[in-house]
């Protein structure tokens, strides 16, 4: 384990900016708004900011204010932030796990609220140590030699927490792929995983039955998602390399691939069906997340997790999770929260909160609500 400082090579930044600046907008057709995917005018606005005011070095300095580390974890080089709080000795830390197309930056507005509640009018005794990694193949974590699944990632994250950092117990929190990884951690390592907190419940257990009207309606909604919104997933879990060649040297293309998901999955205003990203997110915050895919080559290797999960058969869980579980059911416009009756067949749910607002990227969209629920659940579990 060694300290890590983010310092992208100048030539890499220059190439990204040159590619954005030279994008041929004039010959690109406009389908009109968001009716066929990413809106041209919105993407152009982001690109103009990218080359006309966005400062990666300033963002880099801001990111480096956090304590970054890398470690060899079972043969995988993993990047993570490790925050020591004023938590009572022996309190388990919270592991915060991102998904795709997010990154560790999703949690940087939430982290101080969880680690240092006294800065926000709370009690320092209610703080938690935090571990915020980049998943393998994402950001500054090295790519695996070949695609791996979420159960493999769960093993790596468990080894990080117990073998590298020396914690006996931990609380695992996740959304998107993070929910699947943390779910496997609770499933495979219940002696170490003291609690599981999910802001997305997508993985059930083998033999799960949809028995009530609400549960059957949810199953139909999931089928509609796969038909209308699941094209990206099908491509990434079958032909990620083909997609990678298209996006690897196209920052604008990568931005479109990522921003369309933020627009579709976030709880943002949609006048006349047009999502207003800037009503919830700062453009620079979204551009920094995109840079972690563009400037590191992660846009290709991050998609390997989809293929690896398919090849390894990492859906569904083999059996229900017995670890105490909390669910923050944010009104994600695409990945709808399941009925509680369905979720509790696969998880030992001890806390369920129907959130008033916030979507798929809950920690970025609603950091205060997210932190409050994670802290309340964690304190109830471990004190």
UniProtKB/TrEMBL annotation:
Keyword line: Aromatic hydrocarbons catabolism, Hydrolase
Listed Pfam families: EHN
Residues covered by the Epoxide hydrolase N-terminal domain: 1-107
Active site: 176, 306, 360
GO biological process: epoxide metabolic process
Taxonomy, superkingdom: Bacteria
InterPro entries in alphabetical order: AB_hydrolase_fold, Epox_hydrolase-like, Epoxide_hydro_N, Epoxide_hydrolase
Recorded GO MF terms: epoxide hydrolase activity
Annotated family: Belongs to the peptidase S33 family.
UniProt-recorded name of the protein: Pimeloyl-ACP methyl ester carboxylesterase
Organism, as annotated: Sphingopyxis flava
């Amino acid at each position: 384990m060694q300290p890590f400082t983010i310092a992208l090579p100048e030539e890499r930044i220059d190439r990204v900016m040159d590619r954005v600046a030279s994008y041929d907008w004039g010959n690109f057709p406009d389908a009109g708004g968001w009716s066929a995917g990413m809106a041209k005018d919105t993407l152009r606005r982001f690109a103009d900011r990218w080359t006309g005011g966005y400062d990666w070095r300033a963002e880099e300095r801001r990111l480096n204010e956090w304590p970054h580390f890398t470690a060899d974890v079972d043969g995988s080089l993993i990047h993570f932030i490790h925050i020591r709080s004023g938590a009572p000795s022996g309190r388990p830390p919270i592991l915060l796990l991102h998904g795709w197309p997010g990154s560790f930056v999703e949690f940087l507005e939430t982290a101080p609220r969880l680690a240092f509640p006294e800065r926000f009018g709370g009690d320092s005794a209610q703080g938690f140590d935090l571990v915020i990694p980049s998943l393998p193949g994402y950001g500054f974590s090295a790519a695996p030699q070949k695609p791996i699944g979420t159960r493999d990632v769960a093993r790596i994250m468990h080894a990080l927490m117990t073998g590298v950092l020396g914690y006996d117990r931990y609380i695992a929190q996740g959304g998107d792929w993070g929910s699947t990884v943390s779910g496997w951690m609770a499933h495979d390592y219940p002696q170490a995983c003291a609690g599981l907190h999910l802001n997305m419940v997508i993985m059930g257990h083998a033999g799960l039955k949809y028995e009530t009207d609400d549960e059957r309606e949810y199953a139909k909604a999931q089928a509609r998602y796969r038909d209308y919104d699941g094209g990206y997933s099908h491509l990434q879990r079958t032909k990620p390399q083909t997609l990678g060649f298209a996006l690897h040297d196209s920052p604008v293309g990568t931005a479109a691939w990522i921003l369309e998901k933020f627009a579709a999955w976030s709880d943002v205003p949609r006048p006349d069906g047009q999502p207003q990203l800037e009503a919830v997110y700062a453009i620079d915050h979204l551009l920094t997340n995109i840079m972690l895919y563009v400037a590191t080559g992660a846009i290709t290797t991050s998609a390997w997790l989809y293929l690896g999960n398919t090849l390894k058969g990492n859906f569904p869980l083999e059996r229900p999770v017995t670890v105490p579980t909390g669910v923050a059911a944010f009104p994600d416009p695409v990945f709808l929260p399941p009925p509680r009756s369905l979720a509790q067949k696969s998880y030992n749910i001890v806390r369920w909160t129907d959130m008033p607002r916030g979507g798929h990227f809950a920690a970025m969209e609603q950091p205060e609500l997210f932190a409050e629920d994670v802290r309340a659940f964690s304190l109830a579990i471990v004190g």
